[in-house]
Amino acid sequence: MTATKGLEGIVAAQSSISSIMDDQLTYVGYNIDDLAENASFEEVVYLLWNKRLPNQSELDAFKNELDENMALPEGVINHLRSYDLSSVHPMAALRSAISVLGLYDEEADIMDDEANTRKAIRLQARIASVVAAFARIRKGQNPVQPKKGIGFAANFLYMLNGKDPEPIEEEAFNKALVLHADHELNASTFTARVCVATLSDMYSGITAAIGALKGPLHGGANEQVMKMLNEIGEEENAIPYIKKALDNKEKIMGMGHRVYKTGDPRAKHLQKMSKQLTDLVGEPKWYNMSVKIEEYIKKEKGLPANVDFYSASVYHCLGIDHDVFTPIFAVSRISGWIAHILEQYANNRLIRPRAEYVGPEKQDYIPVEKRG
Ligand SMILES: CC(=O)SCCNC(=O)CCNC(=O)[C@H](O)C(C)(C)COP(=O)(O)OP(=O)(O)OC[C@H]1O[C@@H](n2cnc3c(N)ncnc32)[C@H](O)[C@@H]1OP(=O)(O)O
Ligand SMILES: O=C([O-])CC(=O)C(=O)O
After folding, report:
1. Cα of 249 to ligand 1 centre, how many Å?
2. Same domain assignment for residues 279 and 182
3. Which GO cellular component does the record give, naming just one (predicted)?
4. For a tag site, which of 206, 211, 271, 318 has the least CB within 10 Å?
5. Count of domains in the chain?
6. What's the pTM?
7. Which domain holds residue 264?
């Protein structure tokens, strides 16, 4: 038995949700470029869960269901208030809060298809409310109740900021949600599938996935990109900063990808939005700096920018706190996690690979009192 480090190149499941082929990403056969330009996030969620796009009345009903399920149980709000608000990272708060949400769901451990569909809606709706509520509570503000009928992207920004977003903000945020919704067997999705393949419940699968997304080699990279841009500070510092980091064998956040080698098809959409929004808010340096870094890393290391690279400056321009970037990723990616969880349940087998043992062999047990 020989291990493949990081399971690179291993095909671990069949899936009909999303596909990456020749550096093109499709959701259920629809190219991400078409979806990013044309679809609402709700249409994409419906697509991932039902493997087809909704007609108008199905979409209206789906949006309505999300609206109806957005409000949080009071116990969850109280739980969020009970954290050490000065130090808890919003991603840790989210991981815990989703687990707590499960305690308020009478159907948490009911595994039939209908119950799972209802839980899927509740989780998709409420994760947005949790992220927005925690972002406000830690600033001493009260959570804002969701507003019905304005759409998921606008509703999230409304709950976060307490005011309706501008159309350009809503459009950018919707596009970011669409672009982050699913990505084949990325680390957090695989985590979710491994968890529920034991026939554990959906809340456990999502909680596990949030834990995996949090790391800086995965979703946590978007926050780290903004930290790096802040440290660089001005355009002229960008290349010296990156050169030094590479000399120190550091990884440049938002660069590189396990699967994409020529480019991440999502990055160009986020790059375009970054240009628009940084100009709009009068902070073009974030975009200009990012372009310099991208070009330099491409030339020096042959690595492309990934989805986390330009999303950082996009979210910054939307006025979102930098440590809320990764929770926002989760608000979108939960749609993909749920699709994969449902797919796993539908054709389940325990996921249990083997390890290549490389430790010592045939050791003799020595009683503790005789050990040196
Ligand atoms: C939503 C997402 O999860 S997208 C990914 C988000 N993560 C990041 O942006 C973090 C930065 N990027 C990385 O760490 C990596 O590119 C990953 C984790 C995304 C993919 O990694 P892997 O496929 O495992 O590649 P691995 O880490 O083995 O790197 C291969 C080589 O490229 C180098 N490399 C890869 N990414 C980077 C980077 N961002 N900066 C500098 N060097 C890099 C490695 O140092 C290594 O070089 P070596 O062979 O000389 O030792
Ligand atoms: O697929 C991956 O490894 C990481 C990624 O880009 C994502 O999850 O969107």
Report:
1. 11
2. no
3. cytosol
4. 211
5. 2
6. 0.98
7. 221-317
